[in-house]
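Listing S7. Sequence submitted for prediction.
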Amino acid sequence: MTEALVPGGVTLAQLERLWRGGAPARLDPACRAGVESAAARVAGAAAAGTATYGVNTGFGKLAHMKIAAADTAALQRNLILSHCCGVGEPMPPAVVRLMMALKLLSLGRGASGVRWAVIAALEGALAHGITPVIPAQGSVGASGDLAPLAHMTAALLGVGEVTVGGRVRPAAQALADAGLAPLTLGPKEGLALINGTQFCTAYALAGLFGGWRAACASLVTAALSTDAVMGSTAPLHPEVHALRGHAGQIEVAAVMRGLLEGSAIRESHRDGDARVQDPYCIRCQPQVTGAAMDVLRMAARTLEIEANAATDNPLVLSDGIVSGGNFHAEPVGFAADMIAMALAEIGSIAQRRVALMVDPALSFDLPAFLTPEPGLNSGLMIAEVTTAALMAENKHAAHPTVIDSTPTSANQEDHVSMAAHGARRLMPMVANLEVILGVEAICAAQGIGFRAPLETSAPLARAVAHLRTRVAPLGADRYLAPDLAAAAAMVADGGLVGAAGVAMPAL
């Protein structure tokens, strides 16, 4: 089903559907009048011959060079071809399609000066499943995501490669087979298509959506771990969290109370437990993951605004065509850095819970490395080491990128956001986090099994049962890599959270 987009009014939920589902996107026709009005003004500027940046001038440091009217079409095509300088692995197709939808939204604000034919070309490619093959490296997140957006635009011109039905094909052939004519660019249109933050915003949104799902899964795995080590639920008391007042903390505590309610394991040690307090990784889950969720929400608000923004240059305003700097991706860079730190911290505290469960000195009488026969078997020893490796990778990746500006383009673009690779790192970080949480689920389910005949709560029992559909209890040592992959997939697809059946905080 095609997703109808209202420029300036698209929600995070719509954007997530586009990313996860891959449905085509189409602009609300109500925006067409504004788009065509701006295009007419650009055409008028081109005809008048007055120097207007991006219409009849060179670009960047070459802006002082006037371009003859007869050469303006060649100017735009040359711009696209010269800027196709991306390198590295191709972007994931789902992120490419989200990026194309974001570009539609930006153009649909009616400030870019493109003809409706440009929008129709993007919509047509999306409708026919034509996805440009775009190298993922090469943007610094200022003057727009120039190289990746140039590769996107080149495909509309019939240049480069696309994927259709999972096959890589020449763009020109794919367009022809779909009955689509290659786009011919008018004044400013090439610049409008490659100026903007849609590449980094698409990647940041993908990291946000995957990260939020993982954050919710961490509440289930944390509750499982709490029961596995016979941790206390007293720190989840609602008044504790109300006294601090942070929304994420309050919500996380409430969810965990719901997950643990009715656990016979918990009731068995409510009285007479010699342990006064649990380690922080058990006791402070609301404070840590709640704070991370608050940070993710702040980033989400930034990205929602950016997704609806006009971010090219120059812009067609009510009183003229004005050069500005909306292409500078500083807001996206800050948002990506916030998401990265949140992902690293959720994984960091989860990894400490894994370490707690495999350590007999800390796990409240669970066998070493959660194996029935320690010594003969190593159990989950190296699964824990893997989580430590992934936690370290995420910590290193979480270093802020937005502070690492470097001048480009002969010092014309002398401060850049570095938002592109700040956003690109997020999906691998999410994948690492999913493995950490999957291992935590495996360890916790194993620990809960050792508490028999005592039983955990109904929600957690459902989560364990879901895990057991693909990951059997660990007896003698076995080849564990498929188990880790299966558990991570249950985090990624939302199955673990869904099985628990407890409502989660909303992004």
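Caption to Listing S7: primary sequence and predicted structure tokens for the chain studied. The first strand starts at residue 3 and ends at 5. Strands lie at 3-5, 25-27, 87-90, 131-132, 135-137, 161-164, 167-170, 315-317, 320-322.
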